[in-house]
Amino acid sequence: MELSNVIEKRASVRKFKNEDVSVDILKKIAEAGSKAPSINNSQPWKYVAIKNQELLIKMANVVDLKVKSLFKKDLDSSSEVIKKKVEWFSTFFVDVPAVIAIVSKPYKAEADEILTESISHEKLNDLRNHPNLQTIGAAVENMLLTAVDLGYGACWLTAPLVAKDELQELLGIKSPDFLVCLVAVGKPNEDIHPKQKKDINQIFTLID
Asked: What is the pLDDT of residues 14-41, one digit of tens each?
């Protein structure tokens, strides 16, 4: 498929057919992520693919408990609707054929060794707008587009990270590695229509 067509077709898919996703497909999607640019070619990523239903249920349960703990008690009906929506968006991955957890490791900059005492690694990373996380973002976009190109759908999830510690324990992710996000993968259960995007003239400025 032409790249422009893949970009146009990409949309967040949250309802999937009950069809298996092969290990080969998951590897191709993860490999596409590994081709993304990374700060100083650090390639800080690891990919953990999960198809085990029992584990997905455990993951969804810990996320659901944490999400519920975030909200006020005795919500009115309209607020309860919002709460239920957030709960579903955070845990729908339980019904997905496959989930890929994207794991990163802390980025150590070459410049760290020559910083003044007033600038820590964390401060430098903040000043640079967290290039290590931007790196993961590039990897995830490659994965989403590759899923579409292979005839699948995908969704980038960060909401489950409210229970990051619990998820890391379930997935066996040990420090200094840390969980960044999840990507749900499967065959879409319905026709997906990308949401309307802003016109380029609203968001593009040229300085010449």
From this structure: 999 999 999 999 999 999 999 999 988 9
Tell me the pLDDT tens digit for each residue of 54-103. 999 999 999 999 999 999 899 999 999 999 999 999 999 999 999 999 99
Beta strands 178-186 and 153-157: pairing type?
Answer: antiparallel
Distances (CA, A) of 101 to 176, 181, 199: 16, 6, 33
Rounded Cα–Cα distance for residues 39 and 124 (Å): 14
pTM for the full predicted model: 0.93
1: enclosing H helix or E strand: none
Query: Exposed, middle or buried by CB within 10 Å (0-12, 13-18, 19+), for 99?
Result: buried
The DSSP H or E segment spanning 57 is helix 53-69
CB 176 within 8 A of CB 105: yes
